Amino acid sequence: MKATTKKLLLAGIAALTMAGFTAPASAQATLDAVKKRGKMICGVSQTSAGFAFPDAKGVMQGFDVDICRAVSAAVFGSGDKVDFLPTNINTRFQALQSGEIDILSRQTTQTFSRDNSLGLDFGPAVFYDGQGMMVAKKLGIASAKDLDGAAICVLPGTTTLQNLADFFRTNNKKFESVVFENTDENRNAFFSGRCDAISTDRSDLASIRAVASNPADYVVLPETISKEPLAPVVRQGDSNWRDIVSWTVYALMAAEELGITKDNVEQKLSSQDPEVQRLLGVTGDFGKMLGVDNKWAYNVIKSVGNYGEVFERSLGEKTPLGLTRGPNRPWTQGGLLYAPPFR
Amino acid sequence: MQLVKEELTPRLRRPVEFSSWRKQLQPYVGTPGNAAITVICIALIAITVQKVIGWLFLDAVFTGTPTACKESDGACWPFFASKLRFMLFGFYPYDEHWRPTASLLLFFAACGISMNPAFWGRKLMVLWGCVLAVCLWLMLGGVFGLSFVPTSQWGGLPLSFMLSFVGLAGAFPLGIALALARASKLPVIRVVAIAFIELVRGVPLISILFMASVMLPLFMPGGMTIDKLLRAQIAIILFAAAYVAEIVRGGLQAIPRGQYEASAAMGLHYWQMMRLIVLPQAIKIMIPPLVTLFIGFFQDTTLVVIVGLLDFLDTVRSAMREPQWQGIAVLEGYLFAAVVYLFFSTIMGAYSRYLERYFRMGHD
Prior knowledge:
The complex is a heterodimer.
Chain A: H1 3-20, H2 30-37, E1 40-45, E2 53-54, E3 60-61, H3 63-76, E4 82-87, H4 92-97, E5 103-104, H5 112-117, E6 120-122, E7 127-129, E8 131-136, E9 150-154, H6 160-170, E10 175-179, H7 183-191, E11 197-201, H8 202-211, E12 218-220, E13 228-230, E14 233-235, H9 239-257, H10 265-268, H11 274-279, H12 286-290, H13 296-304, H14 307-314
Parallel strand pairs in A: 1-4, 1-5, 9-10, 9-11
Antiparallel strand pairs in A: 2-3, 6-14, 7-13, 8-11, 8-12
Chain B: H1 20-29, H2 32-58, H3 66-71, H4 77-89, H5 98-115, H6 122-140, E1 155-156, H7 157-182, H8 187-201, H9 205-219, H10 228-254, H11 257-265, H12 270-300, E2 310-311, H13 312-320, H14 330-363
Parallel strand pairs in B: 1-2
């Protein structure tokens, strides 16, 4: 190889390597590292309908994505200062541990062992999901307990199969699992009658049902056989960063409770309600306590709206997924969303 | 004993001479059985063609919404209108798509030139150095007026080509070194080479990628991370090197001992012998298996999805999962990916056959 070629190649390799080394981010100072970098890096699903998916221009959209945009708005005042890194089930926690991402917003269920053995901390649950089952209506089945001996389509990995086994053992029934490697195969197998039922998280069941040529032919059974509180995850040992993430989520919930929306947040600045004033930074120094701008919550709502708006935009009944709010309603309406008071 | 036959052997019937088109048809309709098979096959082909055309054009939806596609039985062309650029380039910023396009075209042009044996030589190496540098600059940016695009946003077809091409280009010198080391008389070098090759070949690519992506960062000091793409690329280079090494070893063993002895007799030392006599002959034998290896790697790069990078097949899969298209364009997406892979693999395969003929002409 000629010397010139060698030099060019070396220069190329050097450039790539330089670009490759990112600034070390120690556990204590995620906020400083993020501010210094000028943007946040958020780990999301590679593609999960409704939660994280690329639009026609290749820009990430979805519920999990909006949570990250909200945190970006709290830190930078703009929801665009965030890069999305697709992570998969196997590498998601490691990406967070090694500092590749600052926050993991990827339909991750908070569990005891994850919280206590991985060096990670969970924020508040942003979406309460649970594993359910769906069957064809013509089978005439009303309860999952009638599924004795049924063949059930599932995806491999995580806890889906474990939950099913537990449920059927508890009820002294048998089932046969039919495992498929990817969502498309799983769905088509169910539609073509390869299995009697399909089991996954209820939010996924809804999106699978929405794809059917006639959704009315399928029913989701009433049983929820597992608890899946999906929450954003951060590295352990940086309580300031965790507070920012947690309270950003609470701000989204509080905004819905208080009737603040993307459109009316401007007018709400002159609201007389003291909690609204504190939330929007009209009075008090709440932003400073977090280490961000006092108008942080205003910026969050201005860029993504309140929790209800985030939900409806990506998952709600006007989207192809058509999810109902279910437990993901404010506690005032009988749901599970309950933000601690802003005072 | 009489040796001469007295009467003439009875004359055989003269073979019927068919006109040329009848000769052509003979195997197809010569016997009733053949005729029946032919009719059935023609019917099957006709049905298939009719179905395919029906699906592609007659029943297809050309403009409209995903709902229109869902209701129709045909192909869904609006899916391509909406998602084609994403499938080709992934998360690369939309307004900068000309950059990967330019890189790809440049790369194809360089490949086209390199395919012609008339251009083989040192100048071509320089050309490739320049082309790769320009491609890197186009893709990465950050200097000379282009905005910086982190490698985490690269994806699609350019990524497939980059991982497989740079992977094999990087693996080639390493592979030759390993093959020579494996044939070495020095035990330490030989054992190290054998250990590396057998270890890498004994492990699936996906586990090496997984090690590079999951284990490596945990050994890095204080939160420092190496670019994911670089990690995957290095993993692919190391993996490919082991396979290249075995192909090279096969090539070396195919060279008759006489060639080694003759070059030694001429007073060439080891490196001269390898560089001037043995490798030039061996490389010619190695080209077909190397092309096969390349075609394989071009498709295997899809495994980088485990590291969170999206190559072409992965961007296609991603595109199909956008909520409004979910479950609607599955067939379209996979067919598109198949056509693109088939297209490039066919070119590579055809070129490999061309090379075989080219070298045979030169040497037999």
